[in-house]
Amino acid sequence: MKLFDKLLSVWVLLCMAIGVLLGKFVPAIPEFITKFEVYGVNIIIAILLWVMIYPMMLKIDFKSVKEVGKNPKGLFLTWIVNWLIKPFTMYGIAFLFFMVIYKGIMPDVGQDYLAGAILLGVAPCTAMVFVWSSLTKGNAAYTLVQVATNDLIILLLYVPISGLLLGVGGFSIPWGTLFFSVLIFIVVPMGLAVLTRWLVVKKKGETTLNNVISKTSKFTTASLLLTLVIIFTLQADLIWENPLHILLIAIPLTIQTFFIFGISYGAAKLLKLPHDIASPAAMVGASNFFELAVAVAITLFPDRPGVALATIVGVLVEVPTMLLLVQISNKTKGWFDAKKAEIPATCGTQQGKGIDAPLEDDSHKEANSPNGKSKE
Questions:
Q1: pLDDT value at residue 142
Q2: Residue 375: what are its φ and ψ, rounded to 5°?
Q3: Which domain holds residue 316?
């Protein structure tokens, strides 16, 4: 993992500080940014979010879905935790803190923070899970199948589950806007990514595809950080008046992360899965597709900045928390069987050297290795 990625939380804090200072002391900047709003959606932020998500989708080879039957127990575990457990535990933990424990501290914005937590909980990790899997020597091919299938499930379940939980949380759901958010921030970039992969591989080959991914991936982190500066500029007053809220939001999000990791990791142990499957299965549930959560929060609740703020705090706490879970996973590797997973690697497997890491040509070596196992 690159040093820059390890310090992502530092860059997020720096962007937060820059954005708040600009919004507080240079009011002309947020006034200028708000001129680009159409039906409550800021066009500048929308473009940056799209530029951030597309390169991540480009890394995923959806042809790997055909390998879903090779080791189904790990995948079933991932699906069950991500879609039948995680969204609801996130709602429960967030409701307990924001609506009960913190009721006297944040009576006006607690519900907004609850909504942001819900949007985080319904979005399983897409990009960074490759990094966490690599750091724990997880099976790269399995991780690819896991991410590809979860992204496809998002198309079906993100809207109904998030809509259900937001409704239970007391929100009036603009269903059209919610569907539109999924269309713009998932369906469109996913479709273009699939088309791009197919055209580049067909005409230029996989080496060129890896080069394209390497170049476009550099926009992901840059777009994320620039988006955060703009968001914090627009939310300067809220954060300036309530700086303690950042820490208070981080507490339930961190508890949820450890809780889901524990459920997934423990279940993998009971299912007797090998560690190179158990670790990425637990990591994808523990981490979040925070880019999507931020995008939907901004689109769905443009007039309630606290919703987006909660999703941004998710970005802030994810990297240090997940690095700690990586250490836990590596130190407990002896709890699991030494056997390897039997999912053959597919072309274009992401090795997860960093958030901007391209797909590596090692996938060809993996495909030719005995039993299709990744070489470590």
A1: 82
A2: -85, 135
A3: 3-372
